[in-house]
Amino acid sequence: MKSNFAVLGYPNSNNLGDFIQSIAAEEWMKPKIPQRIDRDQLHKYQGTPVKLVMNGWFMEEPTNWPPSESIQPLFISFHLNPTAERGMLNSEGIQYFKKHQPIGCRDTYTQKTLEKHGIQTYFSACLTLTLKRANSVKSDKKRKGILVLSPLERLLPQEEINKQQGLRGQLLSIAQKLKQPFKSNKYSVAMNRLEAYLSQMDEEVLVKTQLMSPSTFSESDRIKAAQEQLECIASAKLVITSRIHSALPAVAYGTPVIFLADGLQHPNQKSRFEGMESFFKMITSEQLKTLEKNIPVPKKVPEVLLKRFEKELNTFLKD
């Protein structure tokens, strides 16, 4: 059954976490089937007026903001990255946010940034915290093993061509190449620490990545892989990751999480984690040496957050 509802689409994303956020929004719309609208082309939408749940990381193309007038947004679990602030918080962008306030912010960094411009906000946390385990696996399915999901990928050297043009682009490219041996060594050391920790755990280990290239896999392939990733998270005894949208679904499913924060010191990364500390244990790989060798107790999602999600989404999604 089609509807006038929509979720964010990610035709060019290699990160299954983006698709997981849209799956979380879709669960609130069942049995209706929402359409997907490219997050970075919202200004071009000219179809039938739609209600769009605006949860996620914004955005790769900040000059494409604000969205089309045919889109009625619900700002919830919204993250404004420092890389996009200047493009999105011009006078037109600020007025758009004020028109649709209060803005439910995924992290306290976004909340503080918007409030500096007189925009009303509240801390919503992430919509993936509302995912239901029974939607991914049978409720009586027995958990087994440790799922290691993209634990330290951010320590790997950046291989893609730098998008900056001219002299600045050349200098950045040279800097990246100079850093590669250092980064490779840091990754190797961190992986050795993780492997030493896992070797002391009497559990089967499954290792997976949250990254899939859009040049190799279709969007439907990546959506299916995101659903399969959620099944793995819901089936595990423990998740070890450095990806927010592996960690937060685990919290929603009652799966214990160890979050490895190696390589997340840059402001563009740190901004995304402000306010997340209460949901999962964040440590560095070095701290694995002193971590207890047993499965930690899972954290629970605060009831006040779940009730706010229920109120906002049920009101917004009324026909």
Describe it for me?
This protein is an alpha/beta fold and 319 residues long. The chain has 2 domains: 2-128 and 304-316, no CATH class; 134-301, Rossmann fold, CATH 3.40.50. Helices cover 35% and strands 18% of the residues. It contains 9 helices and 11 strands. The protein has helices spanning 16-27, 85-88, 91-99, 108-115, 166-199, 219-235, 244-253, 267-270, 303-316, and strands spanning 2-9, 33-38, 50-58, 71-80, 103-105, 121-123, 146-149, 205-208, 238-241, 257-260, 281-283. The strands form 3 sheets. It has a 5-stranded parallel beta sheet with strand order 8-7-9-10-11, with helices on one face. It has a 4-stranded parallel beta sheet with strand order 2-1-3-4. Strand 7 (146-149), helix 5 and strand 8 form a beta-alpha-beta unit. It is globular. 36% of the residues are buried. Residues 159-172 have low confidence and may be disordered.
Tally the helices: what do you get? Answer: 9
What's the structural domain tally? 2
Radius of gyration: 20 Å
Ranges with pLDDT <50 over ≥5 residues? 159-172
Question: What portion of the residues fall into strands of 2 or more residues?
Answer: 15-25%
Mean pLDDT: 90
Q: Order of strands side by side in the largest beta sheet?
A: 8-7-9-10-11
CATH architecture of the largest domain: 3-Layer(aba) Sandwich
Distance between the termini: 13 Å
Large-scale geometry: globular
Helix content: 25-40%
Q: Major sheet: size, sense and barrel closure?
A: 5 strands, parallel
Question: What's the number of extended β-strand segments?
Answer: 11
Question: Which CATH class of the largest domain?
Answer: Alpha Beta
- Name the structural class: alpha/beta
The helix-strand sequence is EHEEEHHEHEEHEHEHEHEH
CATH topology of the largest domain, by name, is Rossmann fold
